[in-house]
Amino acid sequence: MSLDFYLQYIDEDTFETSEIYSRNITHNLTGMWNKAGIYDSLYNSHRMRPKEIIGLLRSGLAHMEDNPAEYRLLEPENGWGSYENALEFLRDVIAICSRYPNATIGISK
Fold it and tell me: How far apart are CA 28 and CA 52, in angstroms?
């Protein structure tokens, strides 16, 4: 099981959507997301704007980068996901959210 995080533009007149970004990550990293305080920003931001969550994501990333040993302890025993995977995913999401702050977030879990 996994989380699909994507950004899209929704035409307000026709309600047609165009996807501009999509990324998938394992649910096995939810312990890290919780510890970093960004679980809700990632999992419960459907239909929100990136500008609404970007500050929390940056703060969570900073905490993860400043405390790698604490987060490595949360790596799943089954090997599906790692601290490095979590950082890469989060950095990528932050970059795209910064680039498209007014897009619409889509979540599939």
Answer: 25
pLDDT digits (tens, 9 = 90+) for 71-82: 999 999 998 999
Question: What DSSP character marks residue 97?
Answer: H
Host H or E run for residue 24: strand 17-26
Q: What is the pTM of this model?
A: 0.92
Distance, CA of 103 to CA of 56 (rounded, Å): 17
Residue 50, CB-side half-sphere exposure with 13 Å CA sphere: 22
Q: What is the per-residue pLDDT across 18-29, written as a single tens digit (0 to 9) for each?
A: 899 999 999 999
Please give the torsion angle defined by the CA atoms of residues 35, 41, 42 and 48, in that order, rounded to the nearest 10 degrees.
180
CA distances from 88 to 13, 14, 15, 23, 73 (A): 36, 35, 32, 11, 18
H-helix or E-strand containing 41?
helix 39-43
Q: What is the dihedral of CA 8, 109, 2, 50, to 10 degrees?
A: 40
